Amino acid sequence: MGRNRADQNRRVRSTSRWIAVAALVAALLSSAARAQAVSPSDAKVAPSTAAVSPREVALERRLDELEQRQRLLEQKLELERSSHDVLAKEPPRVSIGPRGFAIESADGAFQLRIRGLFQADGRAYLANPAISASDTFLIRRAMPILEARLFKIVDLRFMPDFGQGKLVLYDAYIDIHPFSWLRIRGGKFNPGIGLERLQCMANLTFVELGLPNAIVPIRDVGAQLWGEVANGAFLYAFAVFNGVTDGTVGDFDTGDGVDFVGRIFAHPFRPLKISAVENLGIGFAASYGNQNGTPASTNLPSYKSIGQQVFFSYLVDPKPDATNTVVPRGEHYRLAPQFYYYVGPLGLLGEYVYVAQSVQKDTSRAVLSHQAWQIQLSFVLTLDRASYDGVIPKRPFDLKKRHFGALELAGRYNELRVDKAAFPVFADVTKSAYQARSFGVALNWYLTANTRFGINYERSDFKGGSPTGNRNAENVLFGRLQVSF
After folding, report:
1. Alpha-carbon distances of 63 from 9, 10, 16, 136, rounded to whole Å
2. pTM (2 decimals)?
3. What superfamily in CATH does domain 116-140+192-221+229-484 come from?
4. Which terminus of the chain is less hemmed in, N or C, by CB atoms within 10 Å?
5. What are the residue ranges spanned by the domains of the chain?
C-alpha cells in the first residue's frame, strides 16, 4: 500500500512539472514571436508593454495555480500515507467492561468478544407433598459466549450451555450484514416465534419462562433473511428450518420436512421520537411445516409447568408393536401475535400462541390445536428505566456512596389449553391435564448491570391429569443469583 501511494505521488509531481514546463515554453515562444513582429522603432518605444502582455500575465497566474494545486495534492497524499502508516502500526485495542472482554483491530474491522451467563437457582415445592419433584439447588445455565466480527460485515456467535449437568449447543451461526436492512443468517439459532423466548436469557423478568414457551421452538438449524429499517422502527425475518418439536432444541431434521417461519415486528411511533410511545412494539410470527414420526421417534412434545413438571404428554405404547403410540402425521403450524410496551419504570409484555398438529394413532387421525397466552406487568421501584433489553441501574451497588442498585416488582398470569379432542384417544386424562393456569410474582434486585438476585413465587392450577379429577396444584418458590457479562 505504501509503495503504491509513493508511485502515485511521483506520477502527480512529474505530470505537474511537465504541464508547468509546457506552459512556460508556450509563453516564451509567444513572446519571441511578438518581439520579431514589432518594428525597431516600436521596440524602442514600448519594450516593457510587450513583456507584460495580458496573455503572459494569465499564463503566469495559471502556472502559479498549478504549482499551488501540486503542493496541496502532495500534502494530502503525505497525510494519507502518514495516517495509514500510523494505523498499521497501532496495536489492537483491548477492552474489559459490562459487555465482556473484547479485542478489536485499530480500524474496527475485526473483533473478538468473550461473554458469559451464569445462573445459580434454587427451587422449593411448597404445600404439596404429592409432587414427586425434590427441592433442589441447581446450575440452571452456565453459558460461555464467543462472538467475532470479520471485515465489519460478518458476525459469528457460538453459545453452548453446560447447565443442569448437560451440554446443549444453543447458538452457532454466521450473520452477514452488508446493510442494516439486509442480513443473511445461517446455522443454529432462535426461530423467533415466541416474544419472551426471543429475550436475552439474562434479561428475563421471571426465573422460568411462561407457559406459551412450551409450544414454540427453542433452537433450530436453518437459514434466515432478515433486517431492520428506520433505526428499528420495522423488523422482518423470513427463514427455513429443519423443523423441531414444540419446546425443544434441534440439531438435524428428523421429521422428513422443513418449517417456513416468518416474523414482522414494528415500533410504529419510534420515528416520531416521542418518549411516551417510542417503546411500544407490536408483532406477529408464524410457522408452517409438515411433521412425521415413528413409534421409535415420535417427534411429539410433552408440556411442562412453570415448576418444570410434565403435566401433559401423548400416549406411548410400551408393547413391541407400538400400535397405540401417537405420532405426528402431517401439517404443523403456529400463529403468534405479540406486543410489549415500556415507558419510564413501567413494563408490559403480552403474547398469544396457537399451534395445530396433525396426529395419528393406529387408524385414528385428528388435527389437534393447543393455545397459550400470557401477560406480564413490571415496575422498577427505584424508578430506573424498564426495557425489553433489561434493567440497568442508574446507581450501581456501592456501599461507600450509599447506592443500592435497582429494585423491580413484577407479576404475570398465563395459561395453556390442550385440545380436548386429544382425550381419550391420543392422551390419558387421568395422567395428562388439559389446562394449566399459573399466576406468579417476582422481586428482582439489580446490584449492577451484570449482577442480579431474584425471588419468584408461582402458583399453578390444573384441570384433568388425575384419576380422581384434577391434578394437584403447584406452589413453587424460586431463587436466582445471576452474573452476566
Report:
1. 19, 19, 10, 89
2. 0.81
3. Porin (2.40.160.10)
4. N
5. 2-89, 116-140+192-221+229-484
